[in-house]
Amino acid sequence: MIIKKLYTIIFSLAAVFLFLLQACVNNELEELEAREKKIIGDYLALNPEFTKTEGGIYILEDRTGNGLTPAVDEWIFVNFVGRYLEDSTIRETTYDSLKSEWPASDGFENYLYGPSKILYGYSMPGLNEAVSLMKEGGKATFIIPGDKANYDYRPLLYEIELIRVVKDIKALDDSALFQYIDKKGFLDTAIVDTTVWVRLDETINNDSIVNGDTVFMRFEGRLIDGFGDSVVDNRIFNSNLNDEAPLKFVYPSKVISGKILGNKIPEGLVTALRYIKRGKGSVIIRYPRAFKEAGYVHEKENYIIVPKFQSVVYDIEVTQIISPPGN
Fold first, then answer.
1. Which long-range contacts (C-beta less than 8 Å, at least 24 apart) are formed by 14-20?
2. pTM for the full predicted model
3. Of 166, 196, 219, at which residue does a domain stop?
4. pLDDT of amino acid 276
5. Beta strands in 190-286 (DSSP E)
6. pLDDT by residue (tens digit) across 94-141?
7. Are 154 and 84 in contact (CB under 8 A)?
8. CA dist., res. 300 & res. 245, Å (int)
9. Alpha helix (H) ranges present in 2-48?
């Protein structure tokens, strides 16, 4: 009987505790919701040009586009800066000019600034809706409440420029690649058909690289971008030109010292090195033998360094080749 009464008391106290806990949680959520509404309301009072959409975000069109509007599973190229509405702190951006204002940028080595290549339809709900209201060439600013963003009652302000909509991303990369090959004079330099091209700029001697050789190499890797009116190669994704010492590795790919993405020589570059010898050259690599369909994402911070379906070019200098003893 006594035990039964004890259980009754314990369960009653537990119920009271849970009720009080739930009440505290509800009060806290109500306070957060009220705070968010005030942040958005204060901003709109100063910026009344915004229009609320049926989906619950707010839009201010800065420039009207006249191209395509993306559908789910199509690819888009966008520039953007996302800020927290309450204090204008940058959450993320593609603009190199803003990295000094972005608190996280110091820890993002090799972060890829410039237009992002994104498979549309899989971002936060507010961003998906925002882009759905745009056309190629357009630029707009959006207020995205927390329930359309990170569910943290922290509304966001995003400035988005929709540069291009692409239905077949592989075809776009191939088009840019072959335009680049023609432009740079690589047409007759393929060493693996439609995958790897090599141009020798300077050869010091005829020492070829073979398995087991220790190789010292300087390099700069750049993306071959075709999102604009012309093909460009001005985005560096990996370089050791400013490092104190060159990359040192045992051919084909055992890195001894120095830094290269993933601590691994890309497959197409391994193949090309047999033709570079000691000296300087450039290597163009189509995406299947570079970073493949997945591209390259930072191992810890999960930001993109090389986009998916991305062909690349390396300028390299092999400064020294040391054969193993007995060779």
1. none
2. 0.88
3. 166
4. 85
5. 190-192, 196-205, 214-223, 236-239, 247-250, 254-257, 278-285
6. 999 999 999 999 989 899 999 999 999 999 999 999 999 999 999 999
7. yes
8. 25
9. 2-46
